[in-house]
Design goal:
The chain is α/β, with parallel strands linked by helices and 382 residues long. 45% of the residues lie in helices and 8% in strands. It has 3 domains: 44 residues; 200 residues, P-loop containing nucleotide triphosphate hydrolases (Rossmann fold); 70 residues, no CATH class. The chain has a 7-stranded parallel β-sheet.
Length: 382
Amino acid sequence: MVKSVKNRQKQSATFSSYLGYLYNSAYRLVVNTVIHLSKKLNIMAFSSHRRRPHYGRRNNRGPQGGNRFNSSKIRHDMYISQAVLSEPESIYNEDMTYSEFELLSQVQANIDARGYIHPTKIQSQVIPSALEGKDILAMARTGSGKTAAFLIPMVNKLIQNPGQRCLIILPTRELAQQTDAELKTFVKVTQIRSAVVIGGTNMYRQISEVKRNPQIVIATPGRLRDLFQRRIINLASFKNIVLDEVDHMLDMGFVHEIRFIISQMPKEKQSMFLSATMPREAERIANELLVNPVRFEVKEAVRQQNIEQNIIKVPAGQNKLDVLADHLKKENTTKVLIFSKTKHGADKLSNRLALRGFRVDAIHGNKSQAKKNPSNRTIQTM
């Protein structure tokens, strides 16, 4: 009897400990589940209201924590300056003429036909070394004559070597078309033909032009790589390459395309690398591409203070479009570039100004190249 009681007590103790284990396990499971759900709910409920970690004082913040540009805190005097009229520094080397270069008669005749007499400073430096077949690294601002600096010696070389080809890579469609238009003035009365390979236009027409084996192909990186991968264009057939506006191409994210294109070309080639600035990535590409290059740089003089900056305040209750239209009607307002926050806003403003009798057009990324071209030509002729 005593033994039976002891066995029952032992079983009861074992069962109690087992119930305690189950209780503790269930408790931990519930607690962990609640904590997990609480975290999830907390994130869902408050993630949009979290403040970003910050360091230091928030003096530039408004009362709501995000109004950085409170009009009461903007220093308007920072954006207002009067123009100081002065003669801009000449970009030409007036101590030299194009006739001093050792150019073929056809090339010289085309230069004379354009009325060119003095080369620009960057042209006077680049052209002689390029005619010798050397690799070129040139830095000069936009508008300094870089395009003719590589076109003139390259046209001269291709006339002397009809079997060679040249690849010219630029960042945008507009620059490619402008370069081709300038090239055509230098290749008159020659057998040199060119093709433009750019996005936003008819690819099949470009394929047809490329299959005619033009000596010069002017291209943007994306479309050029596309045609190469379609086996339409053979990059190994080009022994001359020009990269123009390289810093602009890198800003647009074409670094991988540029490296890929260079990797598919022959190792022995003449390369010309032109840019307005020289960021680190551009230096790395130049080191990969160029062999013992001749370096040139035309330093930009201190910018003349010939630009007037002002802020036009729109009085309360007055229409901003009315104020803009009144400003555009001023006698000294001839050519105006207006920036809009959005593409839709650009179209909307263009339509409204057109209804008021202004000669206006909108240019943005949603427009096809066929629609951009008339606008570009209008701007150039204004």
